[in-house]
């Protein structure tokens, strides 16, 4: 009796030692939920780091450097004057710093959902490329667009030429647009509806340069997602006729025609007669 109890206590202590500290919390979750959370955490690498950087910068600009926000906007903000001066090195910092001091919770939530969805469907490198590329195209494209409109006589566009801009909205909308092209069919409709809703909201209720930047960022994201989806498709060989590539192959479990059944029956009959 004492030996059995000693063996039981020793095995129990070994299980407690080998068990990680976090498992005591995860034991409250079902096995399927725990497996799903671990799989999701293993696939998301860029989005958590991006959220940490944006949140840290927002906390610093909202507390310690709150009085320096106008200086930060003039130094890092991008407009046509920045483009004309050749200060393109500020472009990687534009989507990481917000125009207003601090950080709003809905912006962080949108970045987590949109960029996280793209990273889940296409991987961290695709999420990183689309986020920064969409913001770059939106910033440079809007500056050139306002320069053309100002040359055509638009006073509003002329005022936007000298208005520095910062923020993550163009990059996250580009990520949402790319994710909508790569998502499964049942998730494409919510993604496209969210993209249209955000773009229309900024167009109707925000009378600044944001609608133009959002539209350019979304267009860049759609182009990146389309190019990524085309990359996975098999290419047609140059020597193969079009019918062999375009015609879908029948599954292996198809029903054989009657002549094939008759031929196989004759073969089996002949084999039986030879025996």
Q: Would you spell out the secondary-structure blueprint of this structure?
A:
Layout: H1 2-18, H2 23-26, H3 31-43, H4 46-62, H5 69-76, H6 80-85, H7 105-122, H8 124-151, H9 155-160, H10 169-182, H11 185-205, H12 210-231, H13 242-246, H14 258-274
Helix pairs in contact: 4-7, 7-8, 7-10, 8-10, 8-12, 10-11, 10-12, 11-12
For the residues shown, what is the average pLDDT? 77
User: What is the helix fraction of residues, given as a range?
Assistant: over 70%
Q: How large a portion of the residues is in β-strands, by DSSP E?
A: under 5%
The coarse overall form would be globular
What is the radius of gyration computed over CA atoms, rounded to a whole number of angstroms?
29 Å
- Low-confidence segments, ≥5 residues, pLDDT <50? 8-26, 252-263
What does the model show?
With 275 residues, the chain is mainly α. It is 71% helix and 0% strand. About 11% of the residues have low confidence.
Provide a quick synopsis of the model.
The protein is built from 14 helices and no strands.
């Amino acid at each position: 009796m004492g030996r059995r109890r000693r063996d039981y206590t020793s095995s129990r202590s070994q299980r407690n030692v080998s068990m990680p500290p976090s498992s005591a919390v995860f034991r409250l979750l079902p096995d399927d939920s725990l497996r799903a959370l671990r799989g999701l955490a293993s696939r998301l690498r860029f989005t958590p780091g991006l959220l940490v950087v944006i949140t840290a910068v927002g906390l610093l600009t909202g507390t310690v450097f709150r009085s320096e926000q106008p200086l930060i906007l003039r130094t890092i903000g991008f407009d046509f004057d920045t483009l004309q001066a050749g200060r393109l090195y500020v472009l990687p910092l534009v989507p990481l710093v917000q125009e207003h001091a601090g950080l709003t919770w809905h912006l962080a939530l949108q970045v987590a959902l949109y960029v996280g969805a793209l990273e889940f469907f296409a991987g961290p490198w695709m999420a990183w490329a689309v986020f920064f590329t969409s913001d770059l195209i939106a910033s440079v494209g809007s500056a050139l667009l306002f320069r053309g409109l100002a040359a055509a006589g638009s006073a509003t566009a002329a005022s936007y030429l000298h208005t520095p801009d910062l923020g993550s909205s163009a990059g996250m909308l580009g990520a949402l647009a790319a994710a909508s092209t790569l998502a499964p069919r049942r998730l494409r409709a919510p993604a496209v509806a969210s993209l249209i809703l955000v773009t229309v909201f900024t167009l109707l209720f925000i009378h600044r340069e944001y609608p133009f930047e959002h539209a350019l960022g979304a267009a860049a994201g759609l182009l990146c997602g389309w190019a990524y989806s085309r990359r996975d498709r098999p290419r047609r060989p140059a020597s193969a006729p079009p019918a062999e590539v375009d015609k879908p192959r029948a599954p292996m479990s198809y029903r054989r025609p009657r002549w094939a059944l008759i031929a196989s029956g004759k073969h089996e009959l002949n084999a039986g007669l030879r025996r």
